[in-house]
Fold these 3 entries.
Entry 1:
Amino acid sequence: MKVRASEVAKGDELPPLSVPLTRADLVRYAGASGDFNPIHWNERFAAEVGLPDVIAHGMLTMALSARLVTEWTGDPAAIVDHSVRFTRPVAVPADGAAPDEGGAVVELSGKVAAVNEDGTVKVNITARSAEQSVLGGASAVVRLPE
């Protein structure tokens, strides 16, 4: 979807995005990012440091919030600024025997908070997993074509 600045108004909602995450996704992200911290792949280690389970990389969760916005704009280069505060980790339980068992789902939504005089648009982002907020103060500023 490619959205234009003239089509956007304060209060508009972005199409929601639901992203399943599995342990295999965490392994792929670790390889791409170089972040092999055992909290992302070792249940015993995660428990020893007080985590509920293996957790998704914070930057992966942040990237998913950016994906919500880029799918709406149709252009990753439209993002001028993107910020989040990590409030709760995304626990990713072990995969089950069936494809629909195990893992986690990150539910993302967004709402236009402002259409600025400089032609940019501020989007507030909500990210939830296991019915709990996982990002706070998440927002993106985008520059859309006229």
Entry 2:
Amino acid sequence: MVPTVPLPRRSLDTSDARRWYENELGWATVPDSGTAGLPLRLVAGLRFDVLTVPAQAGDAALRHRGRSRAPGSPVALSGDRMLLLVAAGSADELPGLLDWLEWGRLTPDLGAIGAGGHIEAPRPPGFPVTADCSPGCSPGRTNPQGAAVWLRPPETGCGREIPLPTMSALGGVGGAPDLVRLVDTLATQCHRIRLRRACAQPLAFS
């Protein structure tokens, strides 16, 4: 089941949000974003990279890994995509990592955003949310208003270093790096969903 989250309006005060991201977390924002009705955007590739998957696959992967693990690793929902923050440099490692795990090109729905990229800044935790839903919208599946929201927000108050899955963070089953286990789980769930969709397609007869 895809996470159920409120659908916020675009009434976010982007100046306050920018200060929160830059001052509380030390994350860079894209200059001039958050103006003229456009959303505030966060720069990827400096403090973090992003793994992006369909929301359904991401939710299944989080449930499989257990939501209590790596509590400081942020997760957001943007439209129908789930964004999982990982250590900077991970985006460059993804293609080789998928080949090493023998997934290769079997999971085109699993992508990464690294240096030179950016994501929409989710509403910071504690900022007011108006949980309206326009007629016909489906709460929890997509956000027709386009606003990104945190499912697991970054933690503050314990320094600015937020623990993120990384190739060097050894531990767990077989001593595998956290990033390896995370990518393998995400790839598995993406592939399972693609197979289900393929099996659900009606057969075409000539």
Entry 3:
Amino acid sequence: MLWWCVSALARPAVRLWTVTMSRYWDAPPRPMGLPVVHSQGSAPDRILLVGNGPAVGYGVLSHDLALPGALARQLSARTGRAADIDVHADGTLTAATIIAALGSLRLERFDAIITTIGFNEVLALTPGRAWENQLGALIAHVESVARPAPQLLIVGVPPIEAISQFPRPLRALLNHQARLINALSRRACSGHARATFVPFVPPVATDTERYRGRDTYERWAALIVPWLHNRIDRTERSARTARPDEKARQLALDALGILDTEPEEKFDAIARTARDLFGATGAAIIFIDHDRQWIKSARGMPNEITPRAIAFCDVTITGTETFVVEDATRDSRFRDHPLVRGETHLRFYAGHAIEASDGHRVGALCIVDTEPRSFSGSDSALLRSLAIRVQRELWARSESDLTG
């Protein structure tokens, strides 16, 4: 009862301070560009970072320099695999609004979801019961969207002492609220195998500077990545990717507006680079449309529409990793393929999926050869990096069409 009275009396003061400081916090740089980060490598883990505070990236101009980039690099250093970090950051996000924010995202494609919420509830002095109920609803929502559900990591609210801009009279009150929020978060996670509370206690700020740099985000990521690494279960990857939604995939492809367009140098350049880097007979950027395989760019191989039913790339889009056929004459799926038996004499194929911005796999960047060949992990990492270049050009092109 005493805490409720103190909170009620303090809320106007906290609200006044928040309004006063809103312009101050609007000033720092924030990341621009696509809200996704890719680390180098192959066989990527897919992570969603959603929240306010640390997820926003105050003080830097790219997500690669902010927390997502630090998470991707440090996770890859531990796993030896690549990491794809999708970012959904909003300074106003709360436990009450996060489910709606997640509504447009395909959570089933992520291996783990990291949330950084709670700071706004500290400022609002949100009652503990409301926070616990809202967090419980979030955990239930994530557990219901897919089987198996992604791992959910709830990152704690940092001690208020770590944020030196707060007036001294308010720090004790807000720090008590932060400890309450964290204790309830830990309790909410304790009854769920796929929900984990991550303590977040960064070093206390030694100055009043509101800008953050790469070193700060690297230190913050170091507090989260050990927990993330321990929770990712690679055995679930096949189950997570085995049920593509073909109708939604086709809608995502159509929305890109790429089908049946004229050749474009930016895509041709990537196809040439892929062919030359691998010393392959040919390379192509291909999209899988309804019952056909449509080629946007091809170098050193036939540039013609073929049935989807016999397309190598149709197999590629069923997985998140590079699909390789080292000798098509020894593969029962393709040894009778027209390109294998015919004059093209195709023997080798390697393709990496190209995704729409919502994660649907809509096509592939592939290389082919007329001789069998092996394909190493480093080769797969290089092909993936080129496929990501195609994605970025594709997404930028689509965004330009929408705004133009």
